Amino acid sequence: MPSLPKVRSRQIEEADIDGVADLLTRGFRVRSCGYWRGALGRLGSHPTPAGLPKFGYLLESDGVPVGVLLLIFSSIPTRDGVTTRCNVSSWYVDPAFRSQAPLLVSQALKRENVTYVNISPAVHTRPIVEAQGFSRYSSGQLVALPALSRSAGGARVVGIETPPEAHFEPSELELLSVHQEYGCLSLWCVTRERAHPFVFMPRRVKGVIPCAQLTYCRDIEEFVRFARPLGTYLAGHGRPFVIVDADGPIPGLLGVYRDGKAPKYFKGPQRPSFGDLAYTEAVMFGL
């Protein structure tokens, strides 16, 4: 009787890139191999915190990749300092090895001091995500018209090309600069007390209506506070609508809430803020 092939889980290395890209192309047929090579290239240049996996984990059988789980580890600025977060992304295992998938997941989710997020689970995988210990932190999305919100007196919006004459953290400037390189719109909302960082990702609703998705702010309350000047700036750049992850209508924002639209999950010590998609697959890989 032939012996079963040996299967093991380990971190993805640079030498695995071609095989991993081919495997992901088989698993996600709507994406080309070129797309996955580009995504893995961005992971390779991403400032992953020291000691954490650069790309994620793979399953291999007799030296051949048969399963993959990409992970994006990042240091995220918060009101209380910096937290470590991991976006769990792009999980696929060849059908013949599906029984080994828990080995891949257990390796990936073993760090108790890391907050894991899953921002794009397919409908049929959501029960699996919840069984892995994830909780939903955003149940839908609000499409808002922030320019019609109440005014925040004394605040002005500038791009990151203009150094703000107010306090900010170096980690915030780094986040804004990196996301602008990803094609996002990175802004400061400046008051006398400090410069508040914001990132917006260009989107089109139904593929036609130009809008922006709130991708980073220190806290959703800051976006509500500065919604009018931010909305005016965005409208002046052709994007009057802003998509915000939410659990329902947000007081202070005029808009339409869509329950069940793009729910998002987390597992770990720190619940993510609404509208914080910094260093996730949405901006690094493209929607």
Written description of the protein model:
Helix 1 (17-27) packs across helix 2. The mean pLDDT is 92. Strand 9 (195-205) and strand 10 (209-217) form a beta hairpin. The chain has a 12-stranded mixed beta sheet, with helices on both faces. It is of the alpha+beta class and 287 residues long. The chain has 8 helices and 12 strands. The radius of gyration is 20 Å and the shape is elongated. It folds into 2 domains: 7-113, Aminopeptidase (3-Layer(aba) Sandwich), CATH 3.40.630; 141-284. It has helices spanning 17-27, 33-45, 101-108, 126-131, 170-181, 220-225, 227-236, 281-284, and strands at residues 7-11, 56-61, 64-78, 81-93, 115-118, 135-144, 156-159, 185-190, 195-205, 209-217, 241-246, 255-267.
Secondary-structure blueprint of this entry?
Elements: E1 7-11, H1 17-27, H2 33-45, E2 56-61, E3 64-78, E4 81-93, H3 101-108, E5 115-118, H4 126-131, E6 135-144, E7 156-159, H5 170-181, E8 185-190, E9 195-205, E10 209-217, H6 220-225, H7 227-236, E11 241-246, E12 255-267, H8 281-284
Parallel strand pairs: 4-5, 10-11
Antiparallel strand pairs: 1-2, 2-3, 3-4, 5-12, 6-11, 6-12, 7-8, 8-9, 9-10
